[in-house]
Amino acid sequence: MTADPSALPAPEHAHLEGGGGAWRLSGALTVRSVSAVAEALENAQGELDLSGLTRLDTAGAYLLQRHAASLRLHGAQADHAALLERVASSMPQPPEASQTPFSFVQILDRTGRMVAGAGRFLVEITAMLGVFFERLGQIARHPGKLPMTALVHHADQVGWRAIPIVSLMSFLIGVVLAFQGAVQLRQFGAEIFVVDLIAISILRELGILLTAIIVAGRTASSFTAAIGSMKMREEIDAMRTLAIDPALVLFVPRILALLITLPILGAVANFMGLFGGALMSWIELGISPPVFLSRLIAETGTDHVMVGFVKAPVFAIIIGVIGCHAGMQVGGNAESLGAQTSSAVVRAIFAVIVADALFSIFFAMMDI
Predict the structure, then answer these.
(1) Which of 51, 57, 314, 344 could pair with 30 in a Cys bridge, judged by C-beta atoms 3.0 to 4.6 Å apart?
(2) pLDDT tens, position by position, 280-335
């Protein structure tokens, strides 16, 4: 059955007429017809007579309000004028640029707020550390409280799965040290001292420091994301309701797993760094592996090895505590989770570097 064309509603059109400073808009200015006059209104200035409008909807009113600065609207019907006023009151306003003067008082205010925030963070971290040691004391008195399954799982996650990236990083660091040392020491005929350079750098500083930085990047974020997600879903509140201690179940296995695995990762990093340095020394300087090994044993004391391994437990506690603390600070939305995760990584890496600097100063003062 074919519809009668005369029975169909007439298409809606809007017409803009006039020129100079006098314009007249007639017809139906609706969402179907705004595109027909939008381009013409861009170049129109002066007065716009709206008495010829038969229909006006929100889309048409929005178009007219967009050009209200260059066109003075008049002649609108009462209902059209009311719609124009309602749309004008709902138009988004650009934010006002703050014109606060730059002053010394503002600098002091911002500095004070930053110092106060850092102080609160240190207090919270210290409290978290105290909670960990207190729960560790409970486990020492009652070993059955140790969640062994969770400990093994986290040791696998933060330790075993980190071996490939730690090994590759340390191997490349050893190669770079050997190559750069060869370039410099060859000028003085002291190529053999590249062994001492590699050994002291890797065993004393770079092996454990770079390992801790890698672990901080992948583990602190993991701890924060896992605990933060549980906090968002109110699982931690449910654990407290069931008389399950979140610190004992969530914090202790993660931090303890780091305490166990980070020294092992440091040993792997030391071995791979020395291997990479020995390989590059053989290629670049002709120092054979037996000569490299004999020089390493003869000239490198065990104190360098011990200095590196003493730092490992401290770095592990720093990374674990910061990651767990950030997870407990997550709010009820995904934006908070992302912010705390990135913050945990930055804070953990920064704290590890600061701790390494303090260790270096202490060992230098103790002549170790």
Answers:
(1) 57
(2) 888 888 888 888 888 888 877 788 888 888 999 999 999 999 999 988 888 878 88
Residues in the chain: 368
**Residue 320 · residue 353 · CB < 8 Å:** no
pTM: 0.69
- How many C-alpha atoms does 55 have within 13 Å on its Cβ side? 13
Domains of the chain from N-terminus onward: 12-90 (3.30.750.24), 133-365 (no CATH)
pLDDT tens by residue, 234-287: 888 888 888 888 888 888 999 999 999 999 999 999 999 999 999 988 888 888
